[in-house]
Specification:
Helix content is about 65%, strand content about 5%.
Length: about 850
């Protein structure tokens, strides 16, 4: 048995080798060697389904029409071609041999020679139906509609019942938009051959292209009645049922189509999309696996699998799936877009933005992509880019409520409250039951001090979605609650199931739970929740601590007391600058140090416009830094610095053109204090200070927007605070005396009038009793302190760190290492 099996295998291998060698000799044009191999193999008993027709062609005796047709049908056009052309030399007056030669030439890719062969056939037989038909097909494929029509008509003049000409002429007429004529052609073909299911199928496709789905379906059903096993008619019937809303029937026919054509990737994809539309995502995922077992290399199916994983919230698996697609198609815009969305859902916004930009570079702008780019830029704090992308998305799809709502989010964060409110209201007019948009509008109204209306919208959001994590977090942040508040029970339930949520939502819930537990006095549990939220955020926004260290070292090395003295001397000799009366006030310090409270007090005084946290200064400060690094101080550099300062003022005063003073309370401007002084010598600096222990605790318990990655780790936060303190001391030593006014949060709490009076004197402002009623000021506050500054001053936030003293041991040890400055050690 073993010997017989081996002998059979040897015979099979020898036969395959013989056929391959035979074709190779033929491809080289060595027909003598090919004939010898053919005879040798046949003598040894070797065979192949095409051996007989090839042997006839190699002998070259007599007409070879049938043998050539067998080779052409088997896809061996290049093998058939030399024999077909040889036949035209032996029988130059026979139209049939020229038709065969034309078929061989076209199948081999030489359209020009194919046309010449067909035209020669027609010279010999002007009424040859097949020759006109073949030439019509060639011209149609080449886009020569007029010539194609001429030859189809000639074929039908010769034989009015030639079904292939009727069918293909109908396709040409459809291409030309002559739909009624096309339908007439197909119906005429069916009169000739009513039992041909392909014609019923093609007529169905005609009606489908015209949007007449009932007629299309009737045609497909007729085709299937003639042959139920036609995969394409089942597929087309499924499409028609889909369009008619009969989804179960559509599913049945796609399944039937796939029985007969299991490698039809498009049918698998349609079935997957159908399951998604019916909300059967797990079923869709199973279909993806089944489809890929038949079509493992189909990128469309791989991308569908990634889409379904994303819709199921399995964002890490979706990321893996998209990366697998991109390994095969690295420049495919759809895959770049999909990977960007998966990364954004996981909180990896910087990498997400890179992939979304790649998608844009590949496919150009479309509404969905620009919307996602805008959202990702917003998550990273790139406000101008976010607005640009979302405005472009809206121009591409003006009626999309989702784009309007996303644009409103960015406008709100950018301080354009009226525009944001209008966008929210328009989005809600289109989709009034969107709970998340109701909540966002509520937050905007509450930030603006419109409490009654804001609470109404928040209550509506909670009624629509009582267990929505973001809405719950917003409601708990903006509205007061009691221990028996039903929102707390919803939060407890949702928090216990948070593992099924994307990481950004898990983090948001953790911070909300931390706040609730703190208000309940459950401090160890609260700290555990805050720590969880920060761990999640740290994975989403890695902090470049080394970059911060290098940047601060550069600032301190360059901006020395000597440099400020030299620029002061230059300024004294320069022509006097015209005082335009506009005084920018920078409120700087660490976040959560009382800057929002100070701004609210100044706005209450009546002469200062509160601009909130503006992002105008950072790019200008970077330009100033590059100017200073170029060389020694000179008058040209001084003037360039002042130009930067004026551009800042011009941009800031667009917010309040008639104001004398405008407060910019971006805390991070503390790192650019010396640069701002050189650009704007008339500026005033208010440095808000607070016990670093309380600052760090407050930062650790607030889910900041992008740009505060240092706060996600307690010791990294402590090191950041120490670097800030060192830089603040540097500015005190380097800048002229009295340039910066320090305001301690604890002093405000202990003696508000006694602290505010000297502050107003520093700014040249008159006393106003309204400063003591700062919580009544009607203005929008968009920081984490939005609700606190709408309450009278309270002392409960002083020494808050003591609630968490056992958990803060590493931080406290770090902060205590450098207490060499006595009273200022903790500031």
């Amino acid at each position: 048995m073993h010997t017989a099996a081996t002998g059979g295998q040897d015979t099979s291998d020898g036969q395959a080798s013989w056929w391959a060698a035979l074709l190779a000799s033929h491809a080289r044009g060595d027909l003598v060697a090919a004939r010898a191999l053919w005879r040798q193999g046949r003598a040894q008993g070797f065979d192949h389904p095409l051996a007989a027709p090839l042997g006839l062609c190699l002998d070259g005796a007599g007409r070879l029409d049938e043998a050539l047709l067998q080779l052409l049908r088997a896809g061996l056009a290049t093998v058939a071609l030399p024999h077909a052309m040889a036949q035209t030399h032996r029988y130059p007056a026979e139209a049939a041999v020229w038709k065969l030669a034309g078929l061989a030439q076209r199948a081999s890719g030489d359209v020009k020679e194919a046309e010449a062969c067909y035209r020669q056939a027609l010279q010999l037989a002007p009424d040859d139906t097949e020759a006109h038909y073949n030439l019509g097909n060639l011209l149609r494929a080449r886009g020569e509609a007029a010539g194609a029509e001429q030859h189809y008509r000639a074929a039908l003049d010769a034989d009015a019942r030639h079904v292939p000409s009727l069918n293909n002429f109908a396709l040409l007429l459809e291409d030309l938009g002559r739909n009624d004529e096309a339908a007439a052609c197909l119906q005429q073909a069916l009169q000739c051959q009513p039992q041909l299911p392909e014609l019923h199928n093609n007529l169905g496709l005609h009606w489908a292209r015209r949007g007449d789905w009932p007629r299309a379906l009737a045609c497909y059903q007729q085709a299937l009645a003639l042959d139920p096993n036609l995969a394409w008619s089942n597929d087309n019937a499924a499409q028609a049922y889909w369009q008619l809303g009969q989804l179960d029937q559509a599913r049945r026919h796609w399944r039937q189509a796939l029985r007969f054509a299991p490698n039809a990737a498009e049918s698998w994809e349609s079935l997957i999309v159908l399951s998604c539309r019916q909300g059967q995502l797990e079923d869709a995922l199973s279909l993806c696996d089944e489809a890929l077992s038949h079509c493992p290399n189909a990128l469309a199916l791989q991308s569908r699998q990634a889409d379904v994983l994303f819709q199921l919230g399995r964002h890490e698996a979706a990321e893996t799936a998209w990366r697998r697609v991109l390994s095969s198609a690295p420049a495919w815009a759809r895959a770049c877009h999909g990977l960007g969305l998966a990364l954004a859902a996981r909180g990896c916004d910087a990498e997400a933005l890179d992939w979304l930009r790649r998608a844009l570079a590949q496919c150009g702008p479309n509404a969905a992509l620009c919307n996602d780019l805008g959202n990702t830029c917003f998550a990273l704090g790139y406000m101008s880019e976010a607005l640009s992308y979302l405005r472009l998305a809206r121009s591409l799809d003006p009626q999309c409520a989702h784009i309007l709502a996303n644009l409103a989010n960015v406008l709100r964060a950018d301080g354009r409250e009226e525009e944001a409110e209008a966008c929210y209201r328009e989005a809600l007019r289109q989709e009034p039951d969107r709970a998340d948009w109701c909540s966002s509008l509520a937050c905007l109204l509450l930030e603006a001090g419109r409490r009654t209306e804001g609470e109404e919208w928040m209550d509506r959001a909670l009624r629509l979605a009582p267990a929505h994590p973001v809405i719950l977090a917003n409601a708990l942040q903006y509205l007061p609650f009691r221990d028996d508040d039903p929102r707390l029970a919803a939060l407890d339930t949702l928090y216990s199931q948070r593992g099924d949520l994307p990481a950004p939502l898990q983090a948001r819930l953790a911070f909300a739970m931390g706040r609730v537990r703190e208000q309940r006095g459950q401090y160890p549990q609260a700290f555990a929740a805050f720590s969880e939220g920060n761990r999640l955020r740290a994975r989403m926004q890695p902090w470049d601590e080394a970059g911060e260290i290098a940047r601060l070292a550069e600032l301190r090395a360059l901006l020395t007391p000597a440099l400020f003295a030299r620029y002061a001397a230059l300024a004294a000799t320069a022509p006097a600058r015209e005082d335009d009366g506009r005084v920018p006030v920078f409120i700087v310090g660490l976040p959560r140090s009382g800057s929002t409270l100070v701004e609210q007090i100044l706005v209450s005084q009546g002469e200062v416009y509160g601009a909130g946290e503006q992002r105008l200064m950072r790019p200008l400060a970077e330009q100033a830094l590059r100017l200073l690094a170029r060389g020694e101080p000179d008058i040209v550099t001084l003037q360039a610095l002042r130009v930067l300062g004026r551009s800042y003022k011009d941009a800031l005063w667009r917010l309040a053109p008639t104001a004398r003073s405008i407060a910019d309370k971006m805390p991070g401007n503390v790192f650019y204090l010396g640069l701002i002084h050189l650009m704007l010598p008339e500026a005033r600096f208010i440095h808000t200070m607070r016990d670093l222990r309380d600052v760090c605790v407050s930062c650790f318990t607030v889910p900041f927007h992008a740009g505060h990655g240092y706060s996600d780790d307690l010791t990294a936060l402590g090191r950041h605070a120490l670097r800030y303190r060192a830089l603040a001391r540097h500015w005190r030593q380097a800048l002229p005396p009295g340039r910066v006014f320090d305001v301690r949060y604890e002093d405000l709490v202990a003696d508000l009038p006694g602290t505010v009076g000297p502050l107003l004197d520093y700014l040249g402002l008159a006393w106003n009793d309204a400063c003591l009623q700062f919580h009544r000021a009607e203005r929008t506050v968009r920081t984490a302190s939005a609700m606190q500054v709408r309450q009278p001053l309270y002392a409960s936030a002083v020494a808050r760190w003591r609630r968490y003293e056992p958990q803060l041991a590493p931080l406290l040890a770090l902060l205590s290492q450098e207490e060499e400055d006595g009273a200022d050690a903790l500031y």
